[in-house]
Amino acid sequence: MNNHRTITSEISFEMAHRLPDHGGACKRLHGHSYRCLVTLQGSVDPETGIVLDFSILKGLLRTVATQFDHKTLLHESETDLDLDEETCVKLGIDLVDYIPTAENMVQRIWWLIEGQLGRLSLLNVTLKQVRLYETATNYVDCFAGDDR
Ligand SMILES: [Zn+2]
């Protein structure tokens, strides 16, 4: 057995969204309790016996929660709502250039975590997987190599 291991941590956040072109109930404004799991891979340091301190991984996950928690994500095409910038800031509405599905959010989370790894010069680990639960039983995965 080599000394590569994956380490995973989880964070949760509450967020509202609406899928403008959805054929069913997701067209309505509604919220979810999201759970996000991030998995990194790296070698076990022979001196410390760990890949990376979990507190550092948890710090990366907090950047995800900061971006999404208690926000409302709407697609920028929702011009019929007549939302000005002041209203968006006041109500915590982020107008985004992607349809705010779990599939699209997981990619943004991937980019966010990858950016943080670079910023913190955490070169001994690579991002292996991001899993985003939109409900207790539905989730989307993004794996290394899927982020194109
Ligand atoms: Zn939804």
Looking at CATH, which topology would you report?
Tetrahydropterin Synthase, Chain A
Shape category: elongated
Biggest beta sheet summary: 6 strands, mixed
How many separate domains make up the residues? Answer: 1
Mean pLDDT: 94
CATH class: Alpha Beta
Query: H/E order of the elements?
Result: EEHEHEHEE
Say how many strands there are. 6
User: Which residues sit in consecutive blocks of at least 5 with pLDDT less than 50?
Assistant: none
| Strand proportion | 25-35%
Which distinct ligands sit in these coordinates?
zinc ion
- Looking across the biggest beta sheet, what order are the strands in? 4-3-1-2-5-6
User: Any guess at the CATH architecture?
Assistant: 2-Layer Sandwich
N/C terminus separation: 31 Å
Helix content: 25-40%
CATH homologous superfamily descriptor: 6-pyruvoyl tetrahydropterin synthase/QueD
Q: What is Rg?
A: 17 Å
Structure characterization notes:
It is a single chain. The chain is built from three helices and six strands. The radius of gyration is 17 Å and the shape is elongated. Helix 1 crosses helix 3. It has one domain: 2-Layer Sandwich (Tetrahydropterin Synthase, Chain A). With 148 residues, it is an alpha/beta fold. Bound molecules: zinc ion (ZN).
Précis, in short:
This protein has 148 residues and is of the alpha/beta class. The chain is built from three helices and six strands; from the N terminus they run ββαβαβαββ. The chain binds zinc ion.
